[in-house]
Amino acid sequence: MFCGRTCCLFCLFMSSWAFLMLNLLGMFFYVQSLMLLESLPLPHQFNSMQSFKEQADEAYQDVSTRCFVTAIVYLGFVFIAIVVIRRDNKRRKRLYKALRARR
User: Fold this and answer.
1) Are the beta carbons of 14 and 80 closer than 8 angstroms?
2) Percent of the chain surpassing pLDDT 70
3) Which helix (H) or strand (E) holds 94?
4) 36 exposed, middle or buried (CB, 10 Å; 0-12, 13-18, 19+)?
5) How far apart are CA 102 and CA 18, in angstroms?
6) Which stretches in the chain have pLDDT values below 70?
7) Residues 6 or more apart from 67 whose CB is under 8 A from it?
8) C-alpha distances in angstroms, 68 versus 34, 40, 80, 102?
9) Geometric angle at alpha carbon 18, from 13 and 20, rounded to 5°
10) pLDDT tens digits for 82-102?
11) Domain boundaries, the chain
């Protein structure tokens, strides 16, 4: 196996946490939370208030989409970690049964 049981459990925990946090962050960007305005990739100078609103709306949508896509990637890592843990459990059961059969 590529990594041990502890490593797989750690990856499962971290990927689950990242999935949760990125979904929350994506929702906050989607509803255009003002607390996240400073995190947007916007220039510091604007010609008018209308251009600021348009660029801010576009940036909020872009960042929320990025958060949701990244959350889906981390969900894939969650499934990979679960599959590896289950394979390790099956392998351990087979080895345990083989050792008991030898006695």
Assistant:
1) no
2) 98
3) helix 49-102
4) middle
5) 45
6) 1-2
7) 22, 23, 25, 26, 29
8) 19, 16, 19, 52
9) 95
10) 999 999 889 889 888 888 888
11) 5-38+52-102
What would the two tokens of residue 22 be? Answer: 């990125």
pLDDT for res 43? 86
The label of the residue with tokens 């960007």 reads 29
Rounded CA-CA distance 4/11 in Å is 11
Look up tokens 């929350």; give the residue.
24
Check residue 45 and give its pLDDT.
87
Q: How far is CA 18 from CA 8, 14, 35, 73, in A?
A: 15, 6, 20, 10
